Amino acid sequence: MILRVAARSSGSRTQVRGRRRTGSRAPGFSASFACGPPLAWRILIRAPDPKTRVWRTGSAATDSRGAGIAYPVQRKTGTESYGCKMSTESGERQLVQWLSRMPATRDPRVRLGIGDDMAVLDSGGRCVLMSSDMLLDGVHFDRTMQTLDAIGYKAIGCCLSDCAAMAVRPIGVTVSLGLPGDWTLEDSKSLYGGMGRACDGHGCTIVGGDTTAWDGRLAIDVAMVAECFPGVAPVRRSGGRVGDRLVVTGRLGGSILGRHMTFPPRVAEARRIVEVLGERVHAMMDISDGLALDLHRLCGASGVGARVSESQLTQVVHDDARELARMDGMPALDHALTDGEDFELLIAIQYDGDVATAVPGVPLWAIGEMVETGLTMVHVDGHEAPLGRRGFEHLR
User: Are the CB atoms for 213 and 252 separated by under 8 Å?
Assistant: First the structure.
């Protein structure tokens, strides 16, 4: 359960009122707490667990405007330890598996269909790639907390991150919008300003789209068209091999404190990696739904397992994850594993040396290796335990 909160200061105390997150069954709540520095307030919130209906205590992260997200502190056991961010055999995965069996996906012009970061099509012997990302107000962003410029940047950035995941060059995007009733022309200018800023940094262009109005909140769908870099084939999720090193391009966890809106898509880094390492890059994807969940997806596509090192993973925990851990009591390592929206690259490579220097100019961190079966973490005390399929999935 994640609840949106808004805070208003009055003297030495701050009044907090909240509403349920879109799609949840949790009611609103209210609380009060002593004022403190931004991003350091620790408040106690009482809200019922949506499944057990048991009231439990939580804490909230706030920004400099006094608004943020409340996280449950009390942990449960098993695969539902972290409220709405836990899943087992999800409806999202079942849907993807069902769609991948449709007859249309067996068209010979479809080199790679459903199940990877982008589809790969054959257009007269030329490789063309396509993807789309939908973002919803109240799920992927919040208009009351983020600027429209930042929202527009993220909308394009998500598709650019798909291009990075397959090491391909973005060409153009179409943007389709479902606009709320209070929308203005100035709002459009701000939104498209952020989109243009993201495009300009990666050489792609907004080439069209569609616009509708409705009574709901802002909805954005971006479709991306990309092409292969010269001499570089798209990198799939399915090429991982036993013995491959698992590496990431950046630190993980705590993105909700702001990085989920400002992340740099790793398009240039992906190109550099495949140019330097060549065929030693066996599989790659971006980390959008949490490392643990996305690693399960990478292993599933490759038909192998993975062993993650806790000591190595600790080195890539972002400072934001540690800050969030101080607020909600959840270990920083768990934030790195499950938060999502880091938009770093997760890569399986064949490399025996020091991965930190494998690609000059591109920082890489080793976190583990691919094995025959299973997905486990080797803890610092030496014991090995299963690494659950944990992260954010829209359908359950």
Answer: no
**Cα angle 97, 99, 101; round to 5:** 75
Backbone angles phi, psi at 333, to 5 degrees: -65, -35
Distance (Å, whole) CA 120 – CA 131: 9
Q: What is the tally of structural domains in the chain?
A: 3
pTM for the full model?
A: 0.77
Residue 287 covered by a domain: yes
Give residues with Cβ within 8 angstroms of 199, minimum separation 6: 156, 173, 205, 206
Structure tokens belonging to residue 89:
């055999």
| pLDDT 10s digits, 50-94 | 333 232 333 344 333 333 333 333 332 233 332 233 344 466 667
> What is the C-alpha separation between 80 and 366, in angstroms, rounded?
28
**Residue ranges making up the domain that contains 20:** 3-74
CATH number reported for the structural domain that contains residue 251 in this entry: 3.90.650.10
